[in-house]
Amino acid sequence: MTSAKTHRTAEEIGRTETGPRPLPELGSQKAAAELSTVDTTLPNGLRVIAVRRATVPMVELRLRVPFADPAGTSAGSQHSAIAEILANTVLTGTATRSRVEIDTELALVGGELDAVVDPERLSFTGNALASGLGTVLEVLADVLTGASYPADEVERERGRLVERISLARSQPSVIAREALQKLLYGDHPYAKEMPEADEVAAVTRDDVAALHGRALLPRGSVLVVVGDVEPAEAVSQIGDALGAWQGEGEAVQLPPLPKVSGGDVALVHRAGAVQSQIRLAAQAIPRTDERYPALQLANLVYGGFFSSRLVENIREDKGYTYSARSHPEFTVHGATLLIDADTASDVTAAALLETRYELARLGLVPPSESEVDTARSYAVGTLLTSTSSQGGLASFLVNLVALGLGLDWLVAHPQRLAAVTPEQVAATALEFFAPGNFTGVLVGDAELLKPKLSALGGVSFQ
Amino acid sequence: MASPELHRFTLPNGLRVVLAPDASAPVVGVSVHYDVGFRSEPEGRTGFAHLFEHLMFQGSESLEKLAHFRHVQSSGGTFNGSTHPDYTDYYQVLPSAALERALFLEADRMRAPKLTEENLRNQIDVVKEEIRLNVLNRPYGGFPWILLPAVLFKTFANAHNGYGDFVDLESATVDDCAEFFDTYYSPANAVLTVAGDLDVETTKTLVDKHFGDVPARPRPERPSFAEPAPQGEVRHEHGDALAPLPAIAIGYRVPDPTTDIDGYLAYLVLAGVLADGDGSRLQQRLVHREGIVIDLNAGCGLFGPLEARDPDTFSITAIHAADVEASQVIAAIDEELQKLAQEPPSAEELAKVTARWASTMHKEHDRLTNRTLGLGSAELLFGRAELIYELPERIASVTVDEVSAAAKALRPDSRALLLVKPTGGAQ
Which residues lie in Basic and acidic residues bias regions (chain B) (predicted)? Predict the structure, then answer.
């Protein structure tokens, strides 16, 4: 940019006659309006929670069916492959509707309905103009009670799924996630987030239909509806529509997970990679544990938001990464702490060093009162903003309910956070963030990484 | 859709302000849109507009490095910025008690950002990591937003990589930053938007208090980026060592949304008819009936519709099976376009697209971040923040004949064809 000098210098731009100004104080905060809600269980065992939030004339639906592999191990189990085909074909036909008819009916009320499966559950996510709730429920009821799994649809989805799995496995983040889950949980069904191509190829239409009959059950499942609806009316509409959904027994919950214990970080070679994925994990505690609010704040201070020690160190000070974060991950039985950072090959070892250093420092030089207060305000404020939209509230709520909690937990959580003391944060930091608690994987080009990682130590090479 | 009240005013320094009160939740969004994007960066400085966006978070006269993030987050808020072809936006969404703080933070960096060598070097490293993450180390990196413009356009402004070349990024100097700021980050070249739980009169006073003494500077003249549509079909093959499957992107030009928005919206509806939902024409045929395509999209604008001025792009992208020739996919797309050109879509096809767009817009408005940014970009690009509330109705008034005409205009003899070929061998 070489034009005649017509602009000020950077120094001139950065100062004014007035000089630095004071940060304005916060004003007084209004509380969020109370939510009108109905929480009930239908005779078929389905728990239904309806919440009125009339900000826009829409309605959001989240149906969550526990859908774990009842086998104790994924070795030799076809569950993951059959479940994946089921999720991809459950909306492709019933006795009265074809795939295109389902899409058309939903589209005409501005609606969408999708199904995805993971090792824990089958999730249906939908929304529509509020006036179209009846239509979405009708379609949902039809697929729950009468998905027909047309043979040609199953066959095509099988082929497509194999391609989609190969696409997913070409993403470095997926490679890292699969390696981490395998390291943490071995053959436990929780580690199997995607089937293998040959397993998919072996799935028949009858396998899928049988799994539907056996596992897609109302008892143990939950449906959350949030939007411009009257909760009592919505619940009665849901009862009418989904009453015919019946089944023997209860939807299958994930079996308990082995505890995560500390160990070396396993290097996973990816030839030619120009960046590495650092993924660390340690055992944590569930939301129901009384120490959880303190752990939540300790995690924020560590790497849970931008103003955290990890981000300020390896991004804003050293420029090793664009994205670094830590976060808890919950299952029905417990929780882990996960740390993710993606860094250029030549600084990967240094970034791992700093990541471990900050873990140790969190326990030994615990978060100051001001660090705790910043984290607390962030936790309370973002809970407010993330649950201020219909979709945000619906997703948050269905996750809570799956963990045995509900709307009252959400409403009371700001008070819980307010009560946390810096001492409690320090105690959870020392206990849960000790570097020795962590294990993990590192995906990258081993040729480039090995000399420095060997020198650093605590890394195992295949 | 009912349009909520909007309040507009302009400060003496030229800053345009839009206030959109809505008391449904005690949260507020503040955004500033500057009328400069990566189309305006000079040759030899690809990626500069985005790099500069990073620097705007690095401190200002009243705020040390890191203070911006800490003040937003300790107020319970979230923030971000993003660089587009024609504008750069910054926002905070926070509990409404922090409204004045957010205004202060935006005003301070509009008035006097600290542009230092140390922060510049640090953020060049961070941006390079961002590019490794999103482009260099992953399959289909930059597909199609970086790769397609290079085929569809000829001029540097329209065709170059907005993320930037590492050599160019490393060449950036603090004086480049000073010049860029002084030229483009004038209050007269920006729109401030405040949406959510706010009192109009109090907010006007606060805006004036914090932004009123940002010194006036001239509003830079906005160059025309116009260039002729491609003559013929311009093809380019791109090797991707990480991609497991081949992909195609077809790029066409669309009407100028600033002078012919209804013409532009016909293409938006066409995109829905072609590719939105299992019942759309291309999904039905290519993904479900013939099963030759794995993933398919069509749309206006490479960052989404109505987010750029002229020239803008209509694109169709497909990842297809390795044993299928790209020409087979392209021929099928051309055939479907020709059918639409010869016989307009049904009223029901349009009704589906219209209803889904109404839902999409409602959902966007329900998320305060999206609403704030949508109002700001509509005001900046089109001078009409209310456009975002009018869209469902305008989309509903697009006729079947207009959609047919749009399909007819997507001609093979004036388009870009990008073919992504996996070159990773056994992968």
Answer: 211-224
Enumerate residues 371 to 410 of chain B having a beta carbon within 8 A of any beta carbon in chain A.
none
pLDDT tens readout for residues A114-157 = 999 999 999 999 999 999 999 999 999 999 999 999 999 999 99
Residues β-bridged to residue A65: A122
Domain span at residue B255 reads 232-422
Of A109, A164, A171, Cβ closest to residue B294: A164
CATH number of domain containing B373: 3.30.830.10
Q: Judge: A385–B74 Cβ closer than 8 Å, yes or no.
A: no
Residue B314 is assigned to a structural domain of this protein: yes
Hey, which CATH number is domain A265-461, 3.40.225.10, 1.10.15.40, 3.30.830.10, 3.10.450.50? Answer: 3.30.830.10
**Options 3.30.830.10, 3.40.50.1010, 3.40.640.10, 3.40.30.10; CATH of A36-242:** 3.30.830.10
Cβ distance B104 to A28 less than 8 Å, yes or no, reads no
Q: Pick A20's closest partner by Cβ from B62, B125, B244.
A: B62
Q: Quick check: helix, strand or coil at residue A4?
A: coil
Contact state of A316 with B122 under an 8 Å Cβ cutoff: yes
Q: Are the beta carbons of B61 and A107 separated by less than 8 Å?
A: no
Mean pLDDT of the residues in chain B? 96
Structure tokens at B48: 């500069």
Residue A331 makes CB contacts below 8 A (sequence gap 6+) with A120, A190, A254, A257
Partner-chain residue, chosen from A15, A22, A343, that has the shortest CB–CB distance to B112? A15
User: Does B291 reach chain A within 8 Å, measured CB to CB?
Assistant: yes
Tell me: do B200 and B291 sit in the same domain. no
Same domain, residue pair B239 and B204: no
Q: Which of B357, B72, B28 is nearest to B202 (CA)?
A: B28
Whole-prediction pTM value? 0.96
Buried b or exposed e, range B180-210, using 16+ CB within 10 angstroms? bbbbbbbbbbbbbbbbbbbeeeebbebbbeb
CA distance B92 to B56: 14
> How many whole angstroms separate alpha carbon A158 and alpha carbon B313?
34
3 state SS of A213: helix
Predicted local confidence at residue A6, as pLDDT: 83
Q: Which residues contact B399 (CB under 8 A, 6 or more apart)?
A: none
Does residue B321 share a domain with residue B193? no
Token digits of residue A359: 């873990």
The residue type of B427 is: Q
B301 and B418 inside one domain: yes
Contact criterion met (CB < 8 Å) for A306 and B69: yes
Locate the domains of chain A by residue range. 36-242, 265-461
Identify which of A251, A243, A247 has the alpha carbon closest to the alpha carbon of residue A220: A251
